[in-house]
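Supplementary Note 3. Input sequence used for the single-chain structure prediction.
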Amino acid sequence: MSLEEAARQLKMAVHDAQVAFDCVGLGDLERAQEHSLTARTATDAAMTALTRALEDMTPEQAQAEGERAVVALEDA
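The predicted structure, written as discrete structure tokens, is reproduced below.
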């Protein structure tokens, strides 16, 4: 997995966490639980990608790829 995938997964996790939060406020606990689980799954996927990046990349490579990943997600 790439840093772009890690960034994408983190962005999805933030979205799902916000939806879960909103569902709690609405009293829709089943949907809140579902979105909490989805957020956790996305976070786990991001952790896998980041762990791999730590093993495979130099700090300079990580900085360059991380910048590309963020720009790519902003443009999407």
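The longest helix spans residues 29-56. Helices lie at 3-26, 29-56, 59-75.
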